[in-house]
């Protein structure tokens, strides 16, 4: 065992010194640069990260610059990279470094581990690459390489196995070469010992790879499958402005905590199932391929006649019950998809007109079924919605002159208060507001069609 360990370490280092990629975070050993790169590289491909990393470092070149920046600016710079909690935790950690360590990332494994958002892998990467400390940095690539080379058949999804692999990785680190060795392990997993079809013939440690010798290189590592993400179908309102807001759309900011905290989005809500005779009935036309724009010529303007009338009714009712925002969905315009680690959003996007905003007192006193004059219940309640016959024009005509409603239709449109967190934006505002990827794509398609 000692011989194949020594062989592994020596051959891997020699290979790395010849074949290592030129990457922007390898320009020097600055711990801040290493830290930022390792956070960005979590669950994200190197080629994807490079332009984001360069832009981020240009805007926030030091830990102090990041700590002092407004969070909205940090999120905007991170926009498109996904997993936005990484950006928030990175900035929170930078503020801890400024406040507690005089703006200098400490050469201390326990101190680094105590920073916000830093787990065992990132601690090991920063300590080894930036400070050359013999700390293991075990990620998915490393677990795969070690499992195959040593023919380890324990489930790498179990914490116990990960701890064992961390001990093994630490025992392999050559004296004085921790940073290069850890990067070499990651590089081998990324370029040669890949998840599928590993390139064994080009592997520098092929000769003593125990997994290859017993024919298990395509079986290892052993990993139990995670629970698949649940699917949510959501209805999205792309609300177009008129009058002084012509050419703009209505967006809202998410809450300060939780999923996609403080990012901007189009108004949307979870689609309910319509139940008939004990069976769930799917509404809408059925799923198309990802990010599909539906031809406008196929749209049916009347709510009661449209095949999407149930979804449009639910969208209008839900937003009214939630914020007092009354809209008139016109037709389904686009379908899109957004994948989180635990949820998949299936989005049906509807173009809609902005009607008016109910005052708080009216929201509390009126049920939406009164507005629609159809005996309907609020969006949160489960019910059958099969008798909706109120057309869009009828919906708005009864309340356009209401004293308790703020009308915003017509050429003489006046600005009225919107629900909290809502605002009108044009394409120029996209430069300052941070949106999740899926809404970037939807709005990008929308603006490209109209400009």
Automatic annotation (TrEMBL):
It is an enzyme of class 3 (hydrolase). Residues 40-191 form the HhH-GPD domain. SMART domains: ENDO3c. Adenine glycosylase active on G-A mispairs. MutY also corrects error-prone DNA synthesis past GO lesions which are due to the oxidatively damaged form of guanine: 7,8-dihydro-8-oxoguanine (8-oxo-dGTP). This is Adenine DNA glycosylase. Its EC number is 3.2.2.31. Keywords: 4Fe-4S, DNA damage, DNA repair, Glycosidase, Hydrolase, Iron, Iron-sulfur, Metal-binding. The keyword Iron-sulfur applies. GO terms for biological process: base-excision repair; mismatch repair. One of its GO terms (molecular function) is adenine/guanine mispair binding. Its cofactor is [4Fe-4S] cluster. It holds the Pfam family NUDIX_4. Belongs to the Nth/MutY family. It catalyses: Hydrolyzes free adenine bases from 7,8-dihydro-8-oxoguanine:adenine mismatched double-stranded DNA, leaving an apurinic site. The keyword Iron-sulfur applies.
């Amino acid at each position: 065992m000692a011989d194949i360990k020594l062989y592994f370490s020596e051959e891997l280092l020699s290979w790395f010194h010849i074949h290592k990629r030129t990457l922007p975070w390898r320009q020097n050993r600055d711990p801040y640069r290493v830290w930022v790169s390792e956070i960005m590289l979590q669950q994200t491909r190197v080629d994807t990260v490079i332009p984001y990393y360069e832009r981020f470092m240009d805007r926030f070149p030091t830990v102090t610059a990041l700590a002092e920046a407004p969070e909205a600016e940090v999120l905007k710079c991170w926009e498109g990279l996904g997993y936005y909690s990484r950006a928030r935790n990175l900035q929170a950690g930078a503020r801890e470094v400024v406040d507690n360590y005089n703006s200098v990332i400490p050469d201390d494994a326990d101190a680094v581990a105590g920073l916000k958002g830093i787990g065992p892998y990132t601690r090991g990467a920063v300590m080894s690459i930036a400070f050359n400390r013999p700390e293991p940095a075990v990620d998915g690539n490393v677990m795969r390489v070690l499992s195959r080379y040593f023919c380890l058949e324990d489930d790498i999804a179990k914490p116990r196995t990960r701890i064992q692999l961390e001990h093994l990785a630490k025992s392999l680190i050559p004296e004085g070469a921790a940073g290069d060795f850890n990067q070499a392990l990651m590089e081998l997993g990324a370029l040669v010992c890949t998840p599928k079809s590993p390139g064994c013939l080009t592997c520098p440690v092929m000769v003593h790879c125990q997994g290859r010798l017993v024919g298990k290189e395509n079986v290892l590592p052993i990993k139990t499958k995670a629970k698949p993400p649940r699917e949510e179908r959501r209805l999205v309102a792309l609300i177009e402005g008129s009058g002084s807001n012509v050419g703009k759309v209505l967006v809202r900011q998410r809450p300060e905590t939780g999923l996609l905290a403080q990012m901007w989005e189009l108004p949307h809500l979870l689609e309910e199932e319509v139940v008939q005779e004990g069976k769930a009935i799917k509404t809408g036309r059925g799923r198309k391929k990802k990010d599909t724009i539906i031809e406008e010529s196929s749209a049916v303007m009347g709510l009661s006649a449209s095949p999407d009338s149930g979804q449009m009714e639910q969208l209008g009712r839900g937003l009214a019950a939630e914020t007092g925002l009354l809209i008139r969905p016109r037709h389904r315009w686009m379908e899109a998809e957004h994948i989180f680690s635990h949820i998949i959003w299936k989005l049906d996007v509807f173009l809609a007109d902005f009607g008016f905003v109910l005052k708080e007192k009216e929201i509390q006193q009126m049920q939406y079924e009164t507005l629609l004059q159809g005996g309907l219940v609020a969006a949160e309640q489960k019910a059958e919605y099969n008798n909706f016959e109120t057309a869009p024009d009828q919906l708005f005509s009864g309340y356009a002159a209401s004293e308790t409603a703020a009308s915003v239709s017509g050429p003489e449109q006046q600005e009225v208060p919107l629900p909290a967190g809502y605002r009108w934006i044009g394409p120029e505002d996209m430069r300052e507001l941070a949106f999740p990827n899926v809404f970037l794509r939807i709005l990008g398609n929308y603006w490209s069609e109209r400009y």
